[in-house]
Design goal:
alpha/beta; GMP Synthetase, Chain A, domain 3; N-terminal domain of TfIIb; elongated; disordered N terminus
Length: 194
């Protein structure tokens, strides 16, 4: 079973949903306000990094009403992000379970940037063992042959040392790079700046 499918199953089990004997309210965005929809959607975890939500990540861009349908706009962290289908499914499921007819619109412009991540999300990443993106950080050299010798000031989320080295341009997902701390010797993911 793929990681995304496992994450989707796990996320559905965590969602805020109605009790089995409860019927969804006849909700309308005009009556309940977009704040209620934002609150529902802001609880959806990222399928690849479940300690942060799609709102924390900055993927959730807009919520509006068109002809009694909620239109949710999302922007992928990068154009080939495999988690976007799971995120779209989670959004539609959450809104349907809470009485909303919804559509998800994916937009690529403006392109997502790590600047859209909340400070709270960056702290959650650090606590989870992923070094958060550093603003204005020069990207590593493109040559994979040079990757093992590349040293940057990426702080280890375990011991807080900045004495680290790049092991691979890609970590557990394409939006992360794999580093090793030279002090505590532990490998860790670094969420790349975009």
């Amino acid at each position: 079973m793929s990681t995304i499918i496992k994450s989707e199953i796990r996320n559905r089990q965590r969602r805020v949903s109605l009790k089995a004997d409860q019927k969804p309210p006849k909700a309308s965005l005009a009556e309940s306000g977009s704040e209620m929809v934002w609150d529902l959607l802001s609880k959806i975890p990222d399928p690849e990094i479940p300690v942060i939500t799609i709102s924390d990540l900055g993927v959730l861009r807009d919520v509006r009403l068109e002809n009694e349908k909620v239109i949710v706009t999302i922007t992928p962290t990068y154009s080939g992000c495999p988690a976007m289908k799971a995120i779209e499914s989670d959004i539609l499921f959450t809104l349907k379970e809470n009485g909303f007819d919804a559509q998800v619109k994916t937009v690529y412009s403006p392109a997502w940037t790590t600047d859209w991540m909340s400070e709270e999300a960056k702290e959650k990443l650090r606590e989870y063992g992923i070094s958060p993106p550093i603003r204005n950080q020069k990207p590593p050299k493109a040559s994979l042959a040079e990757s093992g010798s590349e040293t940057r000031n990426i702080t280890c989320p375990r011991c807080n040392s900045s004495n680290s080295e790049l092991i691979s341009q890609f970590g557990s997902t394409a939006c992360k790079a794999l580093y090793r701390c030279k002090d505590c010797k532990e490998p860790f993911d670094y969420f790349k700046c975009h």
